[in-house]
Predict the structure.
Amino acid sequence: MGGCVKKMKNKKLIIIFIFGLLVGAGIYFGKEYIRLQEYRNTIRAIEIEGIELSKVVDGVYEGFSDGLLVSAKVWVTVENHRITDIQLEHHHDRGIAAEVLVDKVLENQSTKVDIVTGATSSSKVILKAIENALAGEAE
């Protein structure tokens, strides 16, 4: 009789343990799902509006954009209403392919450039950081 009771206790403990694991996993994946949705909404809300370089005076401008899972900080140098240099500090390894946008912006003198396929989020964050820099005051 004692062995039967012990087996029942072990089964109950195993069931409680498995239930606890399932609840814990559900909470973890639920939080991750919510975080992913916030990330997607944040990236979706980023709009690249373009820049009016004729209104930007000479100087070095600092800008930042945060897309939750990816962010970027830039320093943009403007001379004679032209972007002459962009220094990029990409805060994540994600979307490193999007760093080619710096050259595209310099070449086109505009943030209205094609985003990098496979690095859409990083592309939008980098371009928005450049726009944010040029919307601010020179250092």
About this structure: The longest strand covers residues 71-79. Residues 31 and 37 are 10 Å apart (CA to CA).
